Amino acid sequence: MRRARIKIDAREGEAVYHVMTRTVNGERLLDDTAKEILRKQLWQIADYCGVQVITYAILSNHFHVLLRVPRKTHIPDAELLRRYTVLYPKPTRYQTAKLEVIKGQLAQGGPEALAFTQKQLALMGDVSAFMKLLKQRFSVWFNRTHQRYGTLWAERFKSVLVEGKAGVIRTMAAYIDLNAVRAGLVKDPKDYRFCGYGEAVAGNKAACEGLARVVETVSPRRDRVQSCYRQTLFGKGGAPKENALRISPEQVKKVMESQGHLPLADVLRCRVRYFSDGAVLGSQAFVQEYLQVYKHQTGRRSRKVPRPLPSVTEWGELTTLRGLRNQAFG
User: Which 3 state secondary structure label does DSSP give 162?
Assistant: First the structure.
Protein backbone atom coordinates (compact mmCIF):
# COMPACT_ATOMS: atom_id res chain seq x y z
CA MET A 1 0.00 0.00 0.00
CA ARG A 2 1.41 3.37 -1.03
CA ARG A 3 1.95 5.78 1.84
CA ALA A 4 0.39 9.25 1.63
CA ARG A 5 2.79 12.03 0.81
CA ILE A 6 3.51 14.53 3.55
CA LYS A 7 4.02 18.14 2.51
CA ILE A 8 5.08 20.65 5.13
CA ASP A 9 5.10 24.38 4.45
CA ALA A 10 7.46 26.58 6.42
CA ARG A 11 6.11 29.17 8.80
CA GLU A 12 6.63 32.86 8.23
CA GLY A 13 10.25 33.62 7.42
CA GLU A 14 13.09 32.17 5.41
CA ALA A 15 12.96 28.49 4.48
CA VAL A 16 15.14 25.95 2.66
CA TYR A 17 13.68 23.11 0.60
CA HIS A 18 15.10 20.11 -1.19
CA VAL A 19 12.79 19.53 -4.16
CA MET A 20 12.97 16.71 -6.67
CA THR A 21 10.93 15.62 -9.66
CA ARG A 22 11.13 12.81 -12.24
CA THR A 23 10.22 12.43 -15.90
CA VAL A 24 7.15 10.37 -16.76
CA ASN A 25 7.80 6.66 -16.20
CA GLY A 26 11.36 7.56 -15.24
CA GLU A 27 12.29 7.66 -18.94
CA ARG A 28 15.77 9.01 -19.72
CA LEU A 29 14.55 11.89 -21.84
CA LEU A 30 17.04 14.60 -20.97
CA ASP A 31 20.13 14.63 -23.16
CA ASP A 32 22.88 17.24 -22.75
CA THR A 33 21.01 19.80 -24.87
CA ALA A 34 17.87 19.41 -22.74
CA LYS A 35 19.90 19.58 -19.54
CA GLU A 36 21.50 22.81 -20.74
CA ILE A 37 18.12 24.39 -21.45
CA LEU A 38 16.80 23.28 -18.05
CA ARG A 39 19.95 24.62 -16.37
CA LYS A 40 19.47 28.05 -17.93
CA GLN A 41 15.76 28.12 -17.11
CA LEU A 42 16.52 27.11 -13.53
CA TRP A 43 18.65 30.22 -12.93
CA GLN A 44 16.29 32.45 -14.93
CA ILE A 45 13.15 31.47 -13.05
CA ALA A 46 14.92 31.56 -9.67
CA ASP A 47 15.84 35.18 -10.41
CA TYR A 48 12.28 35.96 -11.43
CA CYS A 49 10.75 34.29 -8.37
CA GLY A 50 13.22 35.91 -5.98
CA VAL A 51 14.53 32.60 -4.59
CA GLN A 52 18.10 31.32 -4.32
CA VAL A 53 19.35 28.11 -5.86
CA ILE A 54 21.89 26.87 -3.30
CA THR A 55 22.77 23.90 -5.47
CA TYR A 56 21.13 21.53 -7.93
CA ALA A 57 21.72 18.42 -10.04
CA ILE A 58 20.14 17.54 -13.38
CA LEU A 59 20.21 13.91 -14.54
CA SER A 60 18.67 12.24 -17.57
CA ASN A 61 15.36 11.39 -15.87
CA HIS A 62 15.11 13.69 -12.84
CA PHE A 63 16.50 16.77 -11.17
CA HIS A 64 17.12 18.04 -7.63
CA VAL A 65 17.22 21.62 -6.34
CA LEU A 66 18.20 22.90 -2.91
CA LEU A 67 16.26 26.14 -2.75
CA ARG A 68 16.27 29.02 -0.26
CA VAL A 69 12.99 30.92 -0.11
CA PRO A 70 13.61 34.24 1.67
CA ARG A 71 11.26 36.01 4.03
CA LYS A 72 8.60 37.86 2.07
CA THR A 73 9.20 41.60 1.84
CA HIS A 74 7.84 44.48 -0.18
CA ILE A 75 9.02 44.38 -3.79
CA PRO A 76 9.31 47.82 -5.44
CA ASP A 77 7.69 48.39 -8.83
CA ALA A 78 11.10 48.79 -10.49
CA GLU A 79 12.14 45.34 -9.28
CA LEU A 80 8.88 43.78 -10.47
CA LEU A 81 9.50 45.23 -13.92
CA ARG A 82 13.10 43.97 -13.91
CA ARG A 83 11.98 40.47 -13.03
CA TYR A 84 9.33 40.59 -15.74
CA THR A 85 12.03 41.30 -18.32
CA VAL A 86 14.05 38.39 -16.89
CA LEU A 87 11.11 36.08 -17.55
CA TYR A 88 10.64 37.47 -21.07
CA PRO A 89 14.13 38.39 -22.31
CA LYS A 90 12.93 38.30 -25.95
CA PRO A 91 9.40 39.73 -25.71
CA THR A 92 6.92 39.66 -28.56
CA ARG A 93 5.53 42.91 -29.93
CA TYR A 94 2.42 42.38 -27.82
CA GLN A 95 4.45 41.82 -24.65
CA THR A 96 6.58 44.89 -25.38
CA ALA A 97 3.50 47.06 -25.89
CA LYS A 98 1.85 45.60 -22.80
CA LEU A 99 4.92 46.36 -20.70
CA GLU A 100 4.82 50.01 -21.78
CA VAL A 101 1.18 50.20 -20.73
CA ILE A 102 2.00 48.59 -17.38
CA LYS A 103 4.83 51.07 -16.78
CA GLY A 104 2.42 53.94 -17.34
CA GLN A 105 -0.21 52.36 -15.09
CA LEU A 106 2.34 51.80 -12.33
CA ALA A 107 3.46 55.42 -12.54
CA GLN A 108 -0.15 56.63 -12.28
CA GLY A 109 -1.45 53.96 -9.92
CA GLY A 110 -3.99 52.79 -12.51
CA PRO A 111 -6.25 49.69 -12.24
CA GLU A 112 -4.07 47.54 -14.51
CA ALA A 113 -1.11 48.17 -12.22
CA LEU A 114 -2.81 46.41 -9.31
CA ALA A 115 -3.75 43.40 -11.46
CA PHE A 116 -0.21 43.18 -12.83
CA THR A 117 1.35 43.44 -9.37
CA GLN A 118 -0.92 40.78 -7.86
CA LYS A 119 -0.31 38.38 -10.75
CA GLN A 120 3.47 38.73 -10.51
CA LEU A 121 3.62 38.50 -6.72
CA ALA A 122 1.60 35.27 -6.82
CA LEU A 123 4.52 33.66 -8.67
CA MET A 124 7.23 34.89 -6.34
CA GLY A 125 8.70 33.75 -3.04
CA ASP A 126 7.03 30.34 -3.12
CA VAL A 127 8.57 26.93 -3.79
CA SER A 128 5.42 25.54 -5.43
CA ALA A 129 5.11 28.49 -7.82
CA PHE A 130 8.81 28.21 -8.68
CA MET A 131 8.60 24.49 -9.51
CA LYS A 132 5.33 24.85 -11.42
CA LEU A 133 6.71 27.65 -13.58
CA LEU A 134 10.03 25.87 -14.19
CA LYS A 135 8.43 22.57 -15.16
CA GLN A 136 5.81 24.21 -17.37
CA ARG A 137 8.34 26.32 -19.24
CA PHE A 138 10.68 23.43 -19.82
CA SER A 139 7.83 21.14 -20.90
CA VAL A 140 6.73 23.65 -23.55
CA TRP A 141 10.27 23.83 -24.95
CA PHE A 142 10.80 20.05 -24.80
CA ASN A 143 7.49 19.09 -26.41
CA ARG A 144 7.85 21.66 -29.19
CA THR A 145 11.45 20.63 -29.89
CA HIS A 146 10.71 16.89 -29.91
CA GLN A 147 7.30 17.04 -31.67
CA ARG A 148 5.55 15.45 -28.73
CA TYR A 149 2.58 16.34 -26.54
CA GLY A 150 1.26 15.41 -23.13
CA THR A 151 2.85 15.36 -19.73
CA LEU A 152 6.61 15.28 -19.35
CA TRP A 153 6.80 14.91 -15.58
CA ALA A 154 5.65 11.90 -13.58
CA GLU A 155 4.40 13.74 -10.53
CA ARG A 156 4.00 17.15 -8.94
CA PHE A 157 7.31 17.10 -7.04
CA LYS A 158 8.72 15.84 -3.78
CA SER A 159 9.87 18.31 -1.17
CA VAL A 160 11.73 18.16 2.13
CA LEU A 161 11.85 21.16 4.45
CA VAL A 162 15.49 21.54 5.52
CA GLU A 163 16.74 23.30 8.62
CA GLY A 164 18.90 26.28 7.72
CA LYS A 165 21.87 25.28 9.88
CA ALA A 166 25.26 24.94 8.20
CA GLY A 167 25.74 21.24 8.95
CA VAL A 168 22.29 20.25 7.71
CA ILE A 169 22.48 22.30 4.51
CA ARG A 170 26.01 21.11 3.79
CA THR A 171 25.05 17.45 4.10
CA MET A 172 22.00 17.90 1.87
CA ALA A 173 23.96 19.94 -0.69
CA ALA A 174 26.72 17.32 -0.88
CA TYR A 175 24.12 14.58 -1.36
CA ILE A 176 22.62 16.52 -4.28
CA ASP A 177 25.96 17.41 -5.89
CA LEU A 178 27.06 13.76 -5.70
CA ASN A 179 24.16 12.61 -7.90
CA ALA A 180 26.34 12.37 -11.00
CA VAL A 181 28.94 10.40 -9.02
CA ARG A 182 26.31 7.93 -7.81
CA ALA A 183 25.10 7.58 -11.41
CA GLY A 184 28.65 6.74 -12.55
CA LEU A 185 28.87 9.76 -14.87
CA VAL A 186 31.91 11.35 -13.22
CA LYS A 187 34.25 10.64 -10.32
CA ASP A 188 34.18 14.24 -9.11
CA PRO A 189 31.11 16.54 -9.27
CA LYS A 190 33.35 19.46 -10.26
CA ASP A 191 33.57 17.76 -13.66
CA TYR A 192 29.80 17.63 -14.12
CA ARG A 193 28.41 20.71 -15.85
CA PHE A 194 24.83 20.24 -14.73
CA CYS A 195 25.20 20.59 -10.95
CA GLY A 196 25.66 23.54 -8.63
CA TYR A 197 29.15 22.57 -7.50
CA GLY A 198 30.36 22.10 -11.07
CA GLU A 199 29.10 25.57 -11.96
CA ALA A 200 30.66 27.10 -8.85
CA VAL A 201 34.06 25.65 -9.74
CA ALA A 202 33.62 27.05 -13.26
CA GLY A 203 33.03 30.50 -11.76
CA ASN A 204 29.27 31.04 -12.10
CA LYS A 205 28.54 33.91 -9.69
CA ALA A 206 25.14 32.66 -8.49
CA ALA A 207 26.50 29.13 -7.99
CA CYS A 208 29.49 30.53 -6.04
CA GLU A 209 27.07 32.41 -3.77
CA GLY A 210 25.16 29.19 -3.18
CA LEU A 211 28.36 27.32 -2.32
CA ALA A 212 29.40 30.08 0.08
CA ARG A 213 26.05 29.68 1.83
CA VAL A 214 26.61 25.94 2.09
CA VAL A 215 29.86 26.42 4.02
CA GLU A 216 28.59 29.59 5.76
CA THR A 217 31.48 31.87 4.91
CA VAL A 218 31.90 35.33 3.45
CA SER A 219 35.48 34.63 2.42
CA PRO A 220 36.24 36.02 -1.05
CA ARG A 221 38.68 33.16 -1.62
CA ARG A 222 36.93 30.59 -3.81
CA ASP A 223 39.67 28.04 -3.20
CA ARG A 224 39.06 28.14 0.55
CA VAL A 225 35.32 27.74 0.13
CA GLN A 226 35.77 24.79 -2.22
CA SER A 227 38.39 23.16 -0.02
CA CYS A 228 36.03 23.28 2.96
CA TYR A 229 33.16 21.76 0.96
CA ARG A 230 35.28 18.99 -0.53
CA GLN A 231 35.86 17.62 2.96
CA THR A 232 32.14 16.86 3.06
CA LEU A 233 32.09 15.48 -0.50
CA PHE A 234 35.09 13.17 -0.12
CA GLY A 235 36.13 13.11 3.52
CA LYS A 236 39.69 13.53 4.72
CA GLY A 237 41.94 14.85 1.98
CA GLY A 238 39.05 16.27 -0.04
CA ALA A 239 39.77 14.18 -3.15
CA PRO A 240 38.04 11.21 -4.84
CA LYS A 241 39.39 7.87 -3.70
CA GLU A 242 41.12 5.77 -6.30
CA ASN A 243 38.85 2.99 -7.63
CA ALA A 244 36.10 4.09 -5.23
CA LEU A 245 32.83 2.31 -5.96
CA ARG A 246 29.30 3.26 -5.08
CA ILE A 247 28.22 1.86 -1.72
CA SER A 248 25.40 -0.62 -2.29
CA PRO A 249 22.27 -0.79 -0.09
CA GLU A 250 23.26 -4.33 0.87
CA GLN A 251 26.63 -3.13 2.15
CA VAL A 252 24.99 -0.38 4.18
CA LYS A 253 22.51 -2.89 5.62
CA LYS A 254 25.33 -5.25 6.67
CA VAL A 255 27.15 -2.40 8.40
CA MET A 256 23.95 -1.44 10.23
CA GLU A 257 23.28 -5.02 11.33
CA SER A 258 26.81 -5.36 12.67
CA GLN A 259 26.49 -1.95 14.36
CA GLY A 260 29.42 -0.78 12.29
CA HIS A 261 30.24 2.71 11.14
CA LEU A 262 30.94 4.26 7.74
CA PRO A 263 32.36 7.70 6.89
CA LEU A 264 29.68 10.20 5.92
CA ALA A 265 31.31 10.73 2.51
CA ASP A 266 30.91 7.00 1.78
CA VAL A 267 27.26 6.90 2.85
CA LEU A 268 26.46 9.93 0.66
CA ARG A 269 27.57 7.86 -2.33
CA CYS A 270 24.49 5.72 -1.72
CA ARG A 271 20.94 6.89 -2.33
CA VAL A 272 19.53 8.06 1.02
CA ARG A 273 15.73 8.15 0.85
CA TYR A 274 15.46 10.19 4.04
CA PHE A 275 16.72 13.15 2.00
CA SER A 276 13.83 12.92 -0.48
CA ASP A 277 11.03 11.26 1.53
CA GLY A 278 11.64 12.40 5.12
CA ALA A 279 9.34 15.48 4.83
CA VAL A 280 11.43 17.50 7.31
CA LEU A 281 15.17 17.23 7.95
CA GLY A 282 17.09 18.88 10.77
CA SER A 283 17.69 18.85 14.49
CA GLN A 284 15.23 17.19 16.84
CA ALA A 285 13.89 20.58 17.97
CA PHE A 286 13.37 21.73 14.36
CA VAL A 287 11.54 18.55 13.34
CA GLN A 288 9.44 18.62 16.53
CA GLU A 289 8.31 22.16 15.73
CA TYR A 290 7.09 21.17 12.29
CA LEU A 291 5.60 17.94 13.59
CA GLN A 292 3.22 20.13 15.58
CA VAL A 293 2.51 22.16 12.42
CA TYR A 294 1.75 18.91 10.56
CA LYS A 295 -0.62 17.69 13.27
CA HIS A 296 -2.41 21.05 13.25
CA GLN A 297 -2.72 21.05 9.44
CA THR A 298 -4.06 17.50 9.23
CA GLY A 299 -5.96 17.29 12.52
CA ARG A 300 -4.22 13.98 13.26
CA ARG A 301 -3.36 12.89 16.77
CA SER A 302 -0.82 10.29 15.77
CA ARG A 303 2.11 9.46 18.01
CA LYS A 304 4.66 10.59 15.47
CA VAL A 305 7.98 11.68 16.93
CA PRO A 306 11.17 12.97 15.26
CA ARG A 307 13.03 9.97 13.82
CA PRO A 308 16.84 9.87 14.13
CA LEU A 309 18.63 8.61 11.05
CA PRO A 310 20.20 5.13 11.37
CA SER A 311 23.53 5.27 13.18
CA VAL A 312 25.47 3.98 10.19
CA THR A 313 27.48 7.22 10.09
CA GLU A 314 27.96 10.50 11.93
CA TRP A 315 24.94 12.52 10.80
CA GLY A 316 25.38 15.34 13.26
CA GLU A 317 22.15 14.43 15.10
CA LEU A 318 20.00 14.68 11.97
CA THR A 319 16.38 13.64 12.42
CA THR A 320 13.38 13.45 10.09
CA LEU A 321 9.65 13.68 10.47
CA ARG A 322 8.95 10.51 8.54
CA GLY A 323 10.64 7.24 9.38
CA LEU A 324 11.29 4.76 6.57
CA ARG A 325 10.70 1.09 7.28
CA ASN A 326 12.06 -0.40 4.07
CA GLN A 327 14.76 0.47 1.56
CA ALA A 328 15.94 3.57 3.38
CA PHE A 329 19.16 3.33 1.40
CA GLY A 330 19.43 2.59 -2.30
Answer: strand
